[in-house]
Amino acid sequence: MEVKLNRKIIEKLCGTVSFKRGDSFFRGNKVELIENDIDFCLGLVKGNEDFHVHIKKDSTGTIQTSCSCSSLLQFDKACQHVAAVLIAIYERQGAEKLLSLNIEATYVQANDFMTIFQTKQTRKSGHQMHFENREIVDLAIQLRPFENEDEQYLFEIQLKIGNSLIQDSRGFLENVYHRNNSRVTTSFTYDPMLHCFSKETDAIVQQLTHLVRDEMVLMDSTPQNRLLIVPSSFEGLFLLLLKANTTIEEYGTVYKLQMQDGPPPLQFHLRKIPDGHYQLHIHGFEKLKIFPSYHLVLSEGLLYNLTNEDSEILQQLKQMVAKGANHVSIASNQLNTFMETVVPNLKRLGHVEINDSILREMKKTSLVAKLYLDRLKHRLLAGLEFEYDHVVIQPLENNDVPIGNMVIRDVEKEAAILKMMEDSGFTQTEGGYYMQNEELEYHFLYHVLPKLHPLAQIYMTTAVRTRLVKKDVFPKIQVKVQKERTDWIEFKFEMTGIKDDEIKEILAALKVKQKYYRLPNGSLLSLETKEMEEIQRFLNEIPAQDDEYEASFNLPILNSLKFLDLIEESEVFSPEQSFRQLMDQLLHPETLKMEVPEYLDSILRDYQKHGYRWMKTLANYGFGGVLADDMGLGKTLQSITFIVSELESIRQQQKPILIVCPSSLTYNWLDELLSFAPEVQAIVIDGKKQEREKLLQDLQSMDVVITSYPLLRRDRKWYESQNFHTVFFDEAQAFKNPMTQTARTVKKIQADNRFALTGTPVENSLEELWSIYYVVFPQLFQKLEDYTFLPRKVIARRVRPFLLRRTKKEVLTELPGKQETLELSELLPEQKKLYVALLAKLRHDTLKHLDKETFASSRIRILAGLTRLRQVCCHPALFVEGYTGGSAKFEQLLQILEESQHSGRRVLIFSQFTKMLEMIGKELVWRNQSYFYLDGKTPADERVELCNRFNYGEREVFLISLKAGGTGLNLTGADTVILYDLWWNPAVEEQAADRAYRMGQKNVVEVIKLISRGTIEEKIHALQEKKRDLVTDILHPNENNASKLTEEDIREILML
């Protein structure tokens, strides 16, 4: 074609943006001149699609152009493909002379403007999308060690395409970022319109691109005293800057750094001009600073956040306006496209004002999208229409609004629907979509279609509806107790309209994690629903026969307990009446007709009868349980009632009941049995080894054998060889640590029924509860590693039928009150001097060890230091030899005792330190006041006698070691309890107080805690409050947590 051009003419004819894209096409060798004569040229531009360009010169010398592309959208200026062919003609001619062309370009025209906003929609992703024609480039990424000047190794990244090393990696990444062509070898040029990367490789390329751009920012930061924020670090740093007292300077004015919601303060005014065309006026760029690397705009001290795409658009608009054009001319036939494509984007960039006359011209109606689905010859067919009032647009045939209509289209909603269809795996034709892949069809029907429902009206033929399983086909698992064997549970899978044989196949599909199952009628049953996931978890826990699952199967009740949570919570499980009745019996044993032994019926209170029936119910089903009533509510009496009720069975089977308890309680048990069940033959196994062996050899006539935890360990071989009728573990917290020898020993005891008795099933951690159930009812929980991950509410719900706990407040309404008071005292000067010196040393030593690596190994040393501080508070003479000073707390105690003596009160004094009890005893002797004394060395039979003598009124004071006498003692003869020193766990102190505050108490009990003000004891008291509700947390979820003495506790106690 004989026409002389240059690049300026082509750019003026096509617009800046289209010119640049056309130039990219040309440099990518995608332009072919098919016909080229004097007045006519036919060109071909290759890409995802081939575009045909016609260029001809009329008789006046004016160039006329046309292109087959649908993206031209009737712009006044020529498209990017026309630009590519004109550049090819120009380059072929090699001419630089100007040709006078009849081109009018007074203002920046609308096609350039709209092309900017098309970028977001037409830009290709770096990785391949569904059914895309772009070729995936095999980009290899290789790390290579590189030694810098400081003799330190770093990794260098090398990029290869095929076997060819990319020499300029930075340049290549820059071209990828800007979507420009990049020549790799003489025979291969990377073209973003033709080539792409795999999804995984593209993610790496994006990161490398950010790295290169950061390098460029740093290279530009000259001189060296300028510190710039690189884009990749900006987001995290900016969040910190917003929280700090940061300022920002703009045009000499300093503002506080802050973000502003909404679009930047740009003004866009669209109006109609007299010649019938339209103009968009732009104002406000002079007040904006754009930070495209940070996606921010600054104006008058306020920062506005933009998306990556919007910040790029804004930057291009600013460059346009900077050339002197602050308004855009829009032809009348472009208004429709402009309103659809540009205006919605402008609203994100500023305030848009449209004259009323324009709005009246446009049809502003809502989009009604219609999706038509049919199924023919194993293909899923889809048709799509966009309807605006009576204007119907066929997006797959001709996306244009029919001639003669002006409609404001909902471009974003249309694009969202089209993208969902594209991403679903459909193959697109000129008039619709089709899909011939059952897995993709399932995904579309069950995962995509629900998302399309809010966006479009969906019309399906019967053939498509058949593929969707009806909502009433809901999986259920019926749960019931077997009629023939009441200790077995039957689980039966059911689905409406599906036979058992088919259910077996569905379960097999679930096992191999299929996404769906095709039913005989062709319906696709989803196996990804919440209900199916629950069934799959259930299947993973049950045994399969020959790797197959049956539609129904049976499990022993004991093996079914781990499913209690699922059965109660899940909608999949459907418990029948027989199973509900079982659970009701466990939770409400009072409804069962279990007679209480006649002579005990008048002695037991109602709640104790409830506890007895609860034990009988658990024993009937072979379950173990934990009776966790408050101290003093008669756990022993309830257990004795159970023993009496089982006497006939015990003697018929010749299997005695075993009671294991602390050494201090063995004779207490014997005494209680003699009092409430004299017909029961019971024996305590104690004494020396030969004496115990003799007793163990002659037990034929015994109904009950009583021993202690220490003696059980010593005689474990004999006990492990026996099979007992029932075993009671009293004060079961004795084996709360599963790693101890006691825990391992009690676990091996064989018995038909197993019960734990403890007022404190949890003292420090939930692991203690697991340890108890691991002994009495191991089927209830999994291994300890799995148990630790169970939520508290799950643990609470699972133990509910098998843990019975009542508090005094709940059941003993007639029990007199309990008053708790704190008595504070100031350290004496000589005490305080010693305390401050010890505290300073302990703080210094502790700070060195309070980290994860050394805390565990230094814990004992730290606790020993804390004990010294507590002893100073009690009395420095506890460890300071020759100490002649006094103790404020000791003097306070003596004053309380004197007042108690005058008022006729009887007192229990507890202390952890036996030496402190001895000091108190010496003082009482000096004051001619007699007392009882009990510690860990007191023989068991003597303990019972001392308690009885005190309760009968002998002596007014009882000195008791906290750990030795905190359990198993009945001292209702006292009405005052003094806790001389505090213990870490409040449960231990509560046990001590409950020696007096228990059933049988007729007086108000006063519990007095002695605390030294301003010392570690105040911190310990605060720690106790945190620990107090751990048991309640299990029985009544949502309470606070308790923990062991942790590193955080020690920091708080020592104020570190």
TrEMBL record:
InterPro entries: Helicase_ATP-bd, Helicase_C-like, Helicase_SWF/SNF/SWI_bac, P-loop_NTPase, SNF2-like_sf, SNF2/RAD54-like_C, SNF2_N, Znf_SWIM. Coiled coil: none annotated. GO terms for molecular function: ATP binding; helicase activity; hydrolase activity; zinc ion binding. Residues 616-779 form the Helicase ATP-binding domain. Residues 51-90 form the SWIM-type domain. CDD domains: SF2_C_SNF (cd18793). It holds the Pfam family Helicase_C. The keyword ATP-binding applies. Residues 889-1051 form the Helicase C-terminal domain. Keywords: ATP-binding, Helicase, Hydrolase, Metal-binding, Nucleotide-binding, Zinc, Zinc-finger. This is Helicase SNF. It comes from Lysinibacillus antri.
